[in-house]
Amino acid sequence: MWALVMDFLPYQSVLSSAAVSRAMLRETMPLVTMLHLDCSAQLHAGVASLRYRDVRDIYIYSLLRYSHVDEDDEVDEPDMDDDEGLTTQVDADTAVRAVPFLCHFPKLERVFLGGRRPNGRVEGFICSGDIMDEDRERMTTLIDAFSGAFRARALANNLWVLGLRCPRSSRTANMFSDSTCLTCRAACRSFPLESVADFECEGSSCKNLSRNSFYYSEKLYSLDVCLRREKIEEIIVEERPGGRDSLYSEARFLSLLGRGTRKIVVPDEGKELFVVKYNEDELGDIRRCIVHSRMNVKMLSSAAVTDAIKRSFAEDERDPLPPRDQCYLAQNSFYDLRSLGLVIDEANFLNADEWDGKKHVSIHPVQLFSNYNWRFT
Ligand SMILES: [Zn+2]
Ligand SMILES: [Zn+2]
């Protein structure tokens, strides 16, 4: 659902948009709405003058630093196309300065903290092998600093924080007992309510981490906490005012529908295509919302449900939808959603090249699958 900053063939455009932002910093005022910061020295509060009062998005790439340790233990500056064997470290300076810096932006809506690999890939603090003790401490201190700032109302209560992960949060964590991590519990009590409902958990932000895969997800994740989803929801329901209503509302249900994973396909010729597929976690969130809210999804209007699903095609919730003929919903996902009881109709999703126009005659998007099967890996 989040700023898919770059889904595919993206780096040049992000790099150039970062360059544009830097030019804007010098030349335009006060309409700067997005900042891209590459080094911790830029996190001086001095930068936060009036001209940046409209900033809504800040991307901080200096939190993670990459270095290359070769056999003779020399640390090299990594080069562009050598992405193997890189060691990731958390930058202490950035970890300390980030929150006080961010408190200067009254209109801030989202902040990403992470790094930019030498090959250009932007990533949060995902599972990157062994984490050194000092890095664990820096990361938990940073998350605690966000919790404190939210509690003190020094940060807006609609700010989304992307890219961070509790060092204890991983897929191999104990699924049967609740973590006692105070950092994550405090985050669930302090971060904006809606963002807590969307926390990643138990390393779910790491699930797309397969560096071999060409179709690496570029999603920027919300805070990944070391608590089970059930525990997060329990804290919301029991400890956050309005928590239950917000968590199990129709509005949240519809917003969950708009969070299928979006991939961008860039064909050799023609326009780019947007393919949406719901993974098991996304379907699980939808299913759990139905169960806990005791909502009768059959009563929801088909138009509202269809529109909500189609929000998945947008880059993020603030963006308009691409043209319909560029949007494809994966067949499996259509049937998965319908089996949850949603009242939806193929005809509202299939494009001209997926069926013959005669309703219910040839509903299988055969052509889609034979041509574009690779999109669904
Ligand atoms: Zn710099
Ligand atoms: Zn934790």
Summarize the structure.
33% of the residues lie in helices and 13% in strands. With 377 residues, it is of the alpha/beta class. The chain folds into 2 domains: 1-241, no CATH class; 248-377, no CATH class.
Please describe what this structure looks like.
With about 375 residues, this protein is α/β, with parallel strands linked by helices. The chain has two domains: about 1-240, no CATH class; about 250-375, no CATH class. Helix content is about 35%, strand content about 15%. The protein is built from twelve helices and 14 strands. The protein has helices at about 10-25, 90-100, 135-150, 180-190, 195, 230-240, 245, 250-255, 280-295, 300-310, 330-340, 365-370; strands spanning about 35, 55-60, 65-70, 75, 85-90, 110-115, 115, 120-125, 160, 200, 225, 260-265, 275, 325-330. The strands form five sheets. A four-stranded parallel β-sheet has the order 1-2-6-9. Helix 2 runs parallel beside helix 3 and helix 3 runs parallel beside helix 4. The model is unreliable at about 1-20, about 25-30, about 210-215 and about 355-375 (pLDDT under 50). The site of one zinc ion has 9 residues, from helix 4.
